[in-house]
Design brief:
mainly alpha; single chain; ABC transporter involved in vitamin B12 uptake, BtuC; membrane; transmembrane transporter activity; about 0% strand; ABC transporter permease; transmembrane; 14 helices
Length: about 325
């Protein structure tokens, strides 16, 4: 906790220097970020942004707890969304659509785990590269078999009323996922095995923990969670899948930053995701108030992670090994 506070303060100090260098008032800029994120005009946008960011952060934190990095959140998110919309359009059932999203994301992420176990392909590479076929497949489906004939945009038709989700359901789903993750992490043998592997993979192997099996299980749950988030977002307003809409906001990368900041702790990851979502949402208000580009908030996020790594001693340990 102490290292996080130090990292946040250091990032704010760097942000203050950058704002002063551009001639902007730092106090006014930070006030604009807070009011833009939590004020009456921006709070709804922040909530809408929190759902995918917190959901993806939790999805990526699940394997990260064991020291495994899933970089395929984009592909699993998109595959879950297009699968849910396809099933929703065909059956009109919201439950079946959500189930399709979970299964699609989970199975696709488990494929990356099998690539590591059978062929030795590192998860960092397999999860990242598997994202591109998934995104391309969704782009093809939304332009041809599932396209909205009455629109020139690459998007599907709107879901029927029975397959739509109210906006608050997305928040409830994310909170439920975080609660389940927290209970499993703290109270079950599976959570203990995951944490032990994260502390020391060699010791976990000596203790009899089956790493290949654990890898498949964690990646399946991670991908299933990402698929569920994609399904939830696509089944909410505007109740259709729009090509590129889930990729452009960079939910996966912001979620990964949140999981890294919290070291994959379930509640800490949720808090960090809300922080990053508010920072990103408030960046638009800062740009309007001070004319400072909202990309400054992305710089703050990167600086925050760098300071966190430095203060936790990670960089020093790596330097000692070299």
């Amino acid at each position: 906790m102490r290292t996080v506070v130090i990292a946040v303060l250091a990032a704010l100090a760097v942000g203050t220097v950058l704002l002063l260098a551009t001639g902007a008032d730092p106090l006014l800029a930070y006030q604009a970020i807070v009011s833009g994120a939590f004020g009456p005009d921006g709070f709804a946008d922040t909530l809408a942004y929190v759902v995918p960011v917190a959901g993806l952060a939790t999805a990526l934190a699940i394997p990260l707890r064991a020291g495994m990095v899933n970089l395929g959140g984009d592909g699993q998110l998109v595959l879950g969304a297009i699968s849910a919309v396809s099933v929703g359009l065909g059956t009109g059932s919201a439950i079946l659509a959500l189930l399709a999203g979970v299964l699609a994301g989970g199975a696709y992420a488990a494929l990356a785990a099998l690539c590591e176990n059978r062929f030795g392909v590192p998860l960092l590479i397999s999860t990242l590269l598997l994202s591109y076929p998934a995104i391309s497949l969704a782009g093809y489906l939304v332009r041809f078999p599932l396209t909205d004939e009455g629109s020139s945009l690459p998007q599907t038709s709107q879901l029927p009323d029975s397959a739509r989700l109210p906006e608050l359901v997305g928040i409830a789903v994310v909170l439920l996922v975080v609660a389940v993750y927290a209970v499993v992490d703290a109270r079950t043998p599976a959570g203990f095995e995951t944490r032990v592997t994260g502390w020391n993979a060699r010791f976990a192997a000596y203790a009899g923990i089956d790493r290949p099996r654990l890898t498949v299980r964690l990646l399946a749950f991670s991908g299933g969670t990402a698929g569920l988030v994609g399904a939830t977002v696509a089944m909410g307003f505007p109740y259709r899948f729009i090509d590129g809409a889930l990729i452009t906001p960079q939910y996966t990368w912001i979620g990964l930053l949140a999981a890294l900041l919290a070291r994959a702790n379930p509640l800490g990851t949720l808090a960090a995701a809300v922080f990053f979502a508010a920072l990103t949402s408030g960046g638009f208000a800062m740009e309007r108030a001070t004319q400072v580009p909202r990309e400054l908030t992305a710089i703050l996020q990167a600086v925050l992670i760098l300071f966190l790594a430095a203060t936790s001693g990670l960089l020093r340990k790596r330097g000692a090994r070299v």
